[in-house]
């Protein structure tokens, strides 16, 4: 019986793949649903909003759209937060599965299973995860091919600066065998000056966090110029020193010499994934925090220089710090520690460190840890941020990378390698 089901599942995946080549963005949800009818199932895709607060259904023509679902204190929200399948206790036969493109959390899918299927059955959960994985790839591949997918993720209009920055930034989360890294930026619909980047190749992970002076479109352009200069130099084989010099030159070329300059604070880092050696240059952002075993190890000092876009110091040096497996490093811009409560008190480095330590103890997936840390910062602020705030969380740990995946590995075919079922 299972072999017949798996054969039909293969047909479903084949149909989804074959239809993807000419698929419009607004056809993702109905074509996934139509393909699943082969298995006596249907599906409804929900995408996470940019603030990661609600799940919005991807609309299908002729079908009434249900209300947005809050992430916190909901079954689908739990599937999203913990990156695991969740049977719906109030809707028998329904299963919520995280929508992951790699390890980037895009939302969830609600599967209505065949009438004779138990949603707690691990094999059926794995089948649904496989379908959800392909659906997530379709969503990501069509994200810039139409407006319905970006529009579904928004709860309000974006500024021009935010539109520019979101097109510049890589996915919020990217995990690899030895590393989990995730980022968050706010205010999502009005960011302008803060941005991040990363690249993982071979034994090297590159990290970038930037904070351009001011806010709005000019700040967004400054951040985009610096980020593009760093990327271009890195992809041409340049190291940390060459990357910051390229950012300096590009900012001066774009905005003029000192007096009319537009500067960008930031941190550029390089992590050796074999040895854990961290090399970095800090161009004026707050000192990164390192946590080890849920305790504060310290802050990353050294490697300091003036902001990007100002004169490059002749004696500029690269700082170094030795990491151990399992260490978490939190990079953050001054909009995080500078978040002010109603009484005017700033969050401060000590309070941020305590919040990060508290979140660390839960050992949640890295993106959920950062989401909750961001919510805690927003709770202190109690209102809209007065400055952009960005954080990047990096964990050098195979276990941390696995926590960002959905469920156990798909069972091997008996007799072909190790059976991990």
Provide the descriptors you would attach to this structure in a database record.
421 residues, six-stranded antiparallel beta sheet, alpha+beta, disordered C terminus
Could you describe the 3D structure shown?
The longest helix is centred in the N-terminal third of the chain and has 20 residues, at 122-141. Strand 1 and strand 2 form a beta hairpin. With 421 residues, this protein is of the alpha+beta class. The model is unreliable at 412-421 (pLDDT under 50). It has a six-stranded antiparallel β-sheet with strand order 3-2-1-6-5-4, with helices on both faces. A six-stranded antiparallel β-sheet has the order 7-8-17-16-13-14. The protein has helices spanning 2-20, 28-36, 75-82, 122-141, 148-152, 160-168, 217-235, 240-255, 334-337, 348-361, 366-381, 398-403; strands at 42-48, 54-57, 69-70, 86-87, 94-101, 104-112, 173-176, 179-186, 194-201, 204-212, 264-272, 277-283, 289-292, 295-299, 319-322, 328-332, 389-395.
């Amino acid at each position: 019986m299972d072999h017949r089901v798996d054969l039909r599942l293969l047909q479903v995946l084949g149909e989804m793949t074959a239809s993807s080549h000419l698929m419009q963005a607004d056809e993702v949800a109905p074509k996934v649903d139509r393909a699943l009818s082969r298995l006596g199932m249907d599906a409804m895709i929900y995408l996470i909003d940019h603030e990661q607060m609600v799940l919005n259904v991807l609309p299908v023509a002729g079908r009434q759209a249900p209300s947005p679902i809050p992430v916190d204190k909901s079954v689908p929200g739990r599937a999203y937060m913990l990156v695991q399948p969740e049977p719906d206790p109030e809707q028998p036969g329904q299963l919520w599965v995280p929508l992951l493109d790699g390890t980037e959390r895009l939302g969830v899918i609600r599967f209505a299973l065949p009438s004779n299927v138990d949603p707690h059955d691990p094999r059926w959960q794995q089948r649904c995860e496989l379908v959800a994985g392909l659906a997530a790839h379709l969503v990501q591949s069509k994200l810039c091919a139409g407006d319905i997918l970006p529009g579904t993720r928004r709860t309000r209009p974006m500024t021009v600066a935010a539109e520019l920055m979101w097109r510049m930034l890589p996915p919020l989360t990217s995990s690899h065998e030895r590393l989990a890294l995730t980022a968050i930026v706010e205010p999502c619909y009005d960011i302008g000056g803060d941005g991040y980047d990363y690249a993982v190749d071979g034994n090297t992970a590159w990290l970038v966090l930037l904070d351009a002076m001011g806010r709005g479109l000019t700040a967004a352009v400054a951040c985009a110029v610096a980020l593009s200069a760093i990327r271009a130099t890195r992809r041409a084989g340049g190291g940390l020193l060459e990357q910051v010099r390229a950012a300096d030159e590009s900012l001066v070329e774009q905005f003029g010499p000192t007096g009319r300059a537009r500067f960008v604070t930031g941190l550029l880092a390089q992590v050796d994934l074999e040895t854990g050696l961290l090399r970095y240059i800090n161009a004026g952002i707050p000192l990164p925090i390192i946590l080890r075993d849920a305790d504060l190890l310290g802050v990353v000092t050294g490697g300091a220089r003036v902001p990007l876009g100002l004169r490059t110091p002749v004696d500029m040096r690269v700082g170094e710090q030795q990491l151990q497996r399992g260490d978490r490093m939190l990079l953050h811009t001054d909009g995080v520690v500078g978040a002010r409560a109603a009484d005017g008190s700033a969050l401060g480095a000590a309070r941020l460190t305590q919040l990060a330590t508290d979140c660390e103890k839960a050992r949640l997936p890295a993106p959920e840890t950062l989401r909750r840390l961001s919510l805690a910062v927003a709770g202190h602020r109690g209102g809209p941020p007065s400055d952009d705030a960005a954080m990047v969380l990096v964990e050098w740990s195979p276990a941390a990378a696995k926590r960002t995946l959905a469920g156990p590995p798909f069972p091997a075919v008996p007799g072909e390698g190790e059976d991990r079922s």
